[in-house]
Amino acid sequence: MQVSFIIPHKGRTEMLAQTVASIWQQDFAGDQFEVIVVTQNQDLDNGLLTAGDGRTAKLVFQTPDKTISASRNLGVRHAKGDYLAFLDADVELSSNWIKAMLAELNSAPDRVLVSAMQQCNDSAPPLEKIRTALSNADVDCNLRFLPGRNLLLARETFFAAGQFPEHLITCEDYYFTDQVHKHGKLFYSSAATYIHLGEDKILGEMYKKEIWRGQSNIQSIKGRNIPFSEIPSFIVPVWIAFFALMAVVSLLFISVNAAVGCIAAALLPIVIYAFRLYKLPSNTVSYWQILKFYLVYFPARIVGTFGGVIKAVELKQQ
């Protein structure tokens, strides 16, 4: 067995079915890969995950209290493949994904992890296009981190990196791929693609998700080195929160001019981030749409990050 696909799952089944269907349609020998779905849905129907030729996914049931990392690690314990492919339960792979990713992984001796490039339809809403452009800011190059939506690595690399961190609710992919990075290079490739079926499509939906995604931001720092390029992602939310608070204080106790200055300071990094994304070659969305995105994104990240810190402190005190 060459490749074991491991898919942690909870909740929606329609996108999971599409994900598994795209695996069955791979241009690769059917007896050379397997699909393992680690689900927290106790009533998941395996019939939804069966190929037309009768091949079916292996279902592994996980308790609802476990993290996504725990589900991925559990899936590995049931896997037979020499290579491990980790997918989210809402991605649709191009038919050449296995062939292309295996070729990319083995094309350089120091390469230890690969991921395919995100794409979206021309009819996708602006928010989905923005998310896709962000994912593709750097393509066909080595990166420090890779998101966990589609990853391929050798089994021995997985264990050498210490497996996925089960203590983190979110940001586990950043932590894990950073550990993998200690063993070699991570490559983001355009040789194959995927569509993120569950990508954010409206700002209100994104706001709620970003609060959830941000809750392990600070906890994910522990145990890994922070590259210089990642520092702004921690400083900017604090900067915005500080100057937004100072704007309120200035308006109440100092002067309107001071409040305006603080608001301008709070907005400055948002304007810069929006302009940087607008100038990316992969971007097809207007500056105004991007600015709206960041005006929602950063407040949500601030709420999620500080909420996660409070929750972590409360857990330590218990």
From TrEMBL:
Keywords: Membrane, Transferase, Transmembrane, Transmembrane helix. CDD domains: Glyco_tranf_GTA_type. GO terms for biological process: single-species biofilm formation. It comes from the Bacteria. The keyword Cytoplasm does not apply. InterPro entries: Glyco_trans_2-like (IPR001173), Glycosyltransf_2 (IPR050834), Nucleotide-diphossugar_trans (IPR029044). Residues 4-129 form the Glycosyltransferase 2-like domain. GO terms for molecular function: transferase activity. The chain crosses the membrane at residues 231-252, 258-278, 290-310. PANTHER family: GLYCOSYLTRANSFERASE, GLYCOSYLTRANSFERASE 2-LIKE DOMAIN-CONTAINING PROTEIN. This is Family 2 glycosyl transferase. The lineage of its organism: Bacteria, Pseudomonadati, Pseudomonadota, Gammaproteobacteria, Alteromonadales.
